[in-house]
Amino acid sequence: MNAILDLMATTGRGLIAGCRTTGALAVFAVDGLSHLLRPPFYWRMFGRALLEIGYFSLPVVALTAIFTGMVLALQSYTGFSRFSAEGAVANVVVLSVTRELGPVLAGLMVAGRIGAAMAAEIGTMRVTDQIDALSTLSTNPMKYLVAPRLAAGIIALPLLVVVADVLGVMGGFIVSTLKLGFNTTTYLHNTLDFVQTMDVVSGLVKAAVFGFLIALMGCYQGYNSRGGAEGVGAATTAAVVGASILILAFDYVLTEMFFAR
Amino acid sequence: MSAAQSVLPDEHPPPQRPPVPAMHPKIRLRGLVKSFGDKVVLDGVDLDVLPGTSMVVIGGSGSGKSVLLKCILGLLEPDAGTIEIDGRDLLAMSRPERAEVHRKIGMLFQNGALFDSLPVWENVTFGLLAQNRLRRSAAREAAGGFLAEVGLAASVGDLSPAELSGGMQKRVALARAIAAQPDIMFFDEPTTGLDPIMGAIIDGLLVDCVKRLGSTAVAITHDMASARRIGDAAAMLHRGKIVWSGPAAELMNTGNPIVDQFTHGRREGPIQMELRR
């Protein structure tokens, strides 16, 4: 009997802690977003964040996209050749990349790179009193640190995904034409004929949401970190894990919204 | 006159302070309570700081000194009590009113709390830029003036905080705190981590800055030499309450057993350190 009560108590505590964290995260998100609409705006901080999230993430996202497109073409060909459906490789590559793999893989790569960096930077500022110092210098930390990063995440991720889409399709094209013997014109024709505006747009919307989630988790975990270096380390891990899980969960939700009949 | 010159203290006298009735405390705390979970850190703190004086609050590690400062600064919300500045209850004010009061306060953090991502000159002028009292194009030049006031060369302005020694970081942090010519200044453990000579130099700079600006200052420390150098008045915080207050000159001879044990660093006495074995 006691064991059951202990189990229920533990579950209940976990549930309450989960609700509390979700509520705090939601309040933090609304607060951060509200500062995007109210001046002053810190354009320099926004530019810096945009450069950090967008420009400096370009190599890792590009490499991920191009190799993913190449592997996708190879695997699709291997599978489809069993049913003599090799002609569908171009369609599968372009749909998979624009709808799913482009935004999700770019999101996960940026979450690892940027989510961790944001949590570490803001977390270090928290434990060294720099965030308190901002407050004493007539600067709202949410406006100065969080809002520019949220805006940069929302804008930079779709731009990265446009690049990822192009390079992912190009990776599939390279493998299909150079290794698998597809005709260049036919492959391009199949790709362009099959892809629809909605496929690309849905991927870009997903990217904007993922960019927001990555910046939100990085800022939230950093902002609320406690306990010196260990706390900052824990915040960094939590930011990456939290952002990755949220990306995958929201990917399903958004796919339902866009494509479920 | 350029914007840079307009904020240099040598060019202009400190701004006119609103008249305060004689002997009315600049800062008045009554029944201030702050807890974290079950742990009561401030348990009804009463404290008066007279205008133009320097109050030193001493107390052991974990006695709530930093929490006290953070409550006055608005970084923490007290659970109960009142904080009056110039006779107005800070906790009863709207957020914009409170922000206006906090704008008149300068703070020197224990570890400097300089912004790693910004060069020294931008750290020093951060508050002025945030309040639009200075144009960015003029800030670099203005920073040189503030750095000179704390004994640093203008060329230091181009360095990053990570390139500075502990003493230089403290000076830069002080330059940042005084740049906006605050009405009230707070110093959190100003000499922690410094050698005795550098500690004395920093204390001297604090006293000079406070006198020159005509500010009211509150410093928290457990460095007795520093407390006597900085303070006109002193108070001791113990177990969340002010157990003694009086002239800083009497700190070493108060007759209060708690204060005497602390100031003389005696192992035996009414203060029992919480040690875990």
Quick recap of the structure?
The complex is a heterodimer of chains A (261) and B (277). Chain A is mostly helical and 261 residues long. Chain A has helices at 2-34, 43-53, 58-80, 89-127, 130-136, 141-179, 184-194, 197-223, 228-259.
Q: Could you characterize what this model shows?
A:
The complex is a heterodimer of chains A (261) and B (277). Chain A contains 9 helices and no strands. By secondary structure, chain A is mainly α. Chain A is globular. Chain B is an alpha/beta fold and 277 residues long. In chain B, the strands form 2 sheets. Chain B has a 6-stranded mixed sheet, with helices on both faces. In chain B, strands 2-1-4-5 form a 4-stranded antiparallel sheet, covered by helices on one side. Chain B is globular. The A-B interface holds A 121, 124-125, 128-130, 132-133, 135-139 and B 70, 73-75, 99, 102-103, 105-107, 109-111, 113-117, 126-127, 130-131, 176.
